[in-house]
Amino acid sequence: MAPSRKTEPETSKKGRTSSKLFVPACYSFGFLLVCLIAFLLQIVYFSPISPVLDEVPQPAVLSATQLQDFIKVGEGSVNHPEDASMDKNGVIYTATRDGWIKRLQDGTWVNWKFIDSQTLVGLTSTKEGHLIICDNANGLHKVSEDGVENFLSYVNGSKLRFANDVVEASDGSLYFTVSSSKYLPHEYCLDILEGKPHGQLLKYDPSSNITTLVADGFYFANGVALSRDEDYVVVCESWKCRKYWLKGERKGKLETFAENLPGAPDNINLAPDGTFWIAIIKLDARRMKVLNSSKLIKHVLAAYPKLFSRFITLGGGAHLINVAEDGTIIRNLVDPTGQLMSFVTSGLQVDDHLYMISLTSNFIGKVQLS
């Protein structure tokens, strides 16, 4: 009879097997943790931004009037315009993303002049009958029947980049915004993520051909407009709307213009009655709160801009506010569903109609105000 072989209990085999599996699992977890830490350290160390955490105000909840009697003007004939302006003869102009300056004739947008640029944004009409157009990449253009002139592309020896919006004063001077003095237009997300005031307000004097810095310290400076009496100039920023005094006892001071905004202000235009129309961009307050809860989140989004564009989504429906000269919000027009327009970048009042312009549309909206 063959001697019997001593066997180990089944539980002992299972325990030893588990121990053998546990050790490699610990090594794998540790390795992944080290890789993750190294990855995050690399993102932070080589990050293009030095972020601060902002206190983004909660969007104010205001009584609103839903947009009605909406007309799509020239649908399919304008390619993602940012702004519009009316000249002294009552002709309305806009600049499109494909470089065409178009004017409205008998309800139709007609090609007028062409600029070889896809970064045309804010514009204004001058008393001499010209158009001044901001070009994110190339400074300021002057457009007339005679053609196109890129008349301001350098300021104090540095190339003018990220010009955003412009307005003319009665003396012919031009006030214009530079959204960021640090980052280029295609890096706009870095400026927003960093959360520091790199924006500027500048003034161009055509008589001397000199450009001067009026004020800085703006958070992504955007739309600009002069008051009816030209005693102050309003600048829209990422989360703020401030005015810089040009005359009077408060000359040279920067103060809050409008508070309790229902979203982020974009472009601003003076209305015929001396009030202002401000386009409002709706942002997800919860996502903005998450964004400003951690510098690491900002570093990660700066490293992967496509994530930023998914995290900070624009839209939520057309939204414009009408603000009195003292900064009081007197009208709040909305399209809560976004069926009319996904969002609006500028509003221009002509008589009793409001033209609404958007970078995401191939038309310009028109509504009756009364």
How do the strands of the widest beta sheet line up side by side?
1-24-23-22-21
Rounded to the nearest angstrom, the distance between the terminal CA atoms is 111 Å
Principal-axes geometry comes out as: globular
What do the pLDDT scores average to?
Answer: 90
Radius of gyration: 27 Å
Largest sheet: 5 strands, mixed
* Structural category: alpha+beta
Give the count of helical stretches. Answer: 5
Helix content: 10-25%
| Low-pLDDT ranges | 1-17
Q: How many strands in all?
A: 27
In percent, how much strand structure appears in the residues? 35-45%
Draw up the topology in text.
Blueprint: H1 10-45, E1 65-66, E2 71-73, E3 84-86, E4 92-95, E5 100-105, E6 108-114, E7 120-125, E8 131-135, E9 139-144, E10 147-152, E11 154-155, E12 158-159, E13 163-168, E14 174-178, H2 188-194, E15 199-205, E16 210-218, E17 224-226, E18 232-236, E19 241-245, E20 254-256, E21 264-270, E22 276-281, H3 285-291, H4 295-303, H5 305-311, E23 319-323, E24 329-334, E25 346-350, E26 353-357, E27 364-368
Parallel strand pairs: 1-24
Antiparallel strand pairs: 2-27, 3-4, 4-5, 5-6, 7-8, 8-9, 9-10, 11-12, 13-14, 14-15, 15-16, 17-18, 18-19, 19-20, 21-22, 22-23, 23-24, 25-26, 26-27
Helix pairs in contact: 2-4
Explain the overall architecture.
This is Str synth domain-containing protein. The protein has 370 residues and is of the alpha+beta class. It has 5 helices and 27 strands. It has helices spanning 10-45, 188-194, 285-291, 295-303, 305-311; strands at residues 65-66, 71-73, 84-86, 92-95, 100-105, 108-114, 120-125, 131-135, 139-144, 147-152, 154-155, 158-159, 163-168, 174-178, 199-205, 210-218, 224-226, 232-236, 241-245, 254-256, 264-270, 276-281, 319-323, 329-334, 346-350, 353-357, 364-368. The strands form 7 sheets. A 5-stranded mixed beta sheet has the order 1-24-23-22-21, with no helix packed on it. Strands 2-27-26-25 form a 4-stranded antiparallel beta sheet, with no helix packed on it. The protein has a 4-stranded antiparallel beta sheet with strand order 3-4-5-6, with no helix packed on it. A hairpin with a 5-residue loop joins strand 13 (163-168) and strand 14. Helix 2 (188-194) runs antiparallel to helix 4. Mean pLDDT is 90; it is low at 1-17.
